[in-house]
Write a structure and sequence with these properties.
With 171 residues, the protein is α+β, with helices and mostly antiparallel strands. The chain has helices at 11-26, 51-58, 89-102, 132-139, and strands at 3-9, 39-45, 64-74, 80-85, 120-124, 145-156, 161-167. The relative contact order is 0.28.
């Protein structure tokens, strides 16, 4: 399994993403379960030693305004529908600071390296290509969604456990 470092959103933005998850579920499409929390993954590794939590917490962090933008599709055979996060210098700098802690860990995919990272929030996984139109229709909007990154958390996929490392609650 994987472990990750993730950015969490303010309550209003989180509620909007959850609303979109419900719209997708109501359309019969696979969206994250209610016990998941909307997030932006900034680093992933096969294993992140616990000692690195202190190093992550030591990195400068303060709430960061962002915008959730349009829809993107990752993959072709098993598409994933995501909402793009509009990159800013501040967001990219935060990702670089956090990634630098995780970079020496085993199993870090190229897609989370700072020059290859695409910030996003996942809306639906395991779609069939023929479901894409319906998924896009369910959640498409004509405006960006203002949001604030309020905290940094760690996720351990083996233990299915999350905990805060900086900022507010990482529940």
């Amino acid at each position: 399994m994987v472990q990750s470092v993730e950015l969490l959103l303010d309550d209003t933005a989180e509620a909007e993403i959850r609303r979109q998850w419900v719209l997708l579920a109501d359309a019969g499409l696979h969206s994250p379960a209610a016990d998941h929390r909307p997030h932006i993954t900034v680093a992933v590794a096969r294993e992140i030693p616990p000692r690195l939590d202190r190093a992550l917490a030591a990195r400068e962090f303060r709430p960061l305004p962002i915008r959730l933008g349009g829809l993107l599709v990752f993959g072709a055979r098993h598409p994933i529908l995501v909402r793009a996060v509009v990159p800013t210098e501040a967001l990219l700098a935060l990702q670089r600071r956090l990634f630098a802690v995780i970079a020496p860990c085993p199993g870090v995919p190229a897609t989370v390296h700072p020059d290859a990272w695409t910030p996003h929030v996942t809306l639906a996984r395991r779609l069939r290509p023929r479901q894409l139109g319906e998924a896009v229709h369910a959640v498409a909007g004509d405006r960006d969604i203002p949001a604030t990154v309020v905290s940094v958390r760690r996720w351990d996929g083996d233990q299915r456990r999350a905990w805060p490392v900086a900022g507010g609650s990482g529940r």
